[in-house]
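Form 12-C: Joint structure prediction
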Amino acid sequence: MFEFILFFILGGVAVVSGLLVVVQKRPVNSALFLIVVFLCMAGLYLLLQAELVAMVQLAVYAGAVMVLFLFVVILLNTGSAAQVWMTRSATLKFAGIAAACVIMPCIGLAISAGITPQAAGSAEAQAGGMKALAALLFTRYLLPFEITSVLLLAAIVGVVYLSQREKERRP
Amino acid sequence: MIPLSYYLMLGAVIFGIGVAGVLIRRSALVVFMSIELMLNAVNLTFVALSCNMGSLQGQVWVLFIMTVAAAEIAVGLALIVLICRNRGTTNIDEINLLKG
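Section 2 - Result
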């Protein structure tokens, strides 16, 4: 019972904040509502007993990524009056609203109707939690883990190169 | 216990909101934020299915998705800063040099 109340509160706030992200005139307000969405997502992950994923979401998404977003948004603050905030094309408006209100809920209904309820999986997979997840990450998924670190290195090098000023850029 | 279909519907709705944001908004930064909404919806779907099936593979993949998304945001924001520095606007209607 308590779980249902929590789910509907978190899910409702996430959906409303998502809508507000999309319709705000100023990007700063959009970024702040996106932080609320990320916090609700972390709560939903905790409801699903995924503690490591919830903490990583808080630390990486709400902590690092949104701070970066806010820095860039404030740096590029061109003012809300000068920005055209919505497309003028009626086709794109129709496509966007159709996708959000009709297509995606239909896909969600179709997928959930097709999934038959299964018995809950092994208890130790859930009880171990972080230990079992770490064991999985460092044994079976070791190669993607290493490739991810190379990807992060490439991203860092790329960003450092891109953010140099024109005069000092070495080709 | 909350049924799996509730989580899948919530993920689908948030994904749809992200798609609407990408299609409708003209500011490059808000388009980026909508892409993050879509990625989060996919993460929620992964974690919900992993909890339902009792396997931890979904959560491992969520960790990878989060890492790749963080790298993508860093590079993408650097590119947006460069474009705004050169063209003076983040309106994606005006950044159309490659348009046929």
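Section 3 - Comments
Chain A has seven helices and no strands. Chain A touches chain B through 85 residues (CB under 8 Å).
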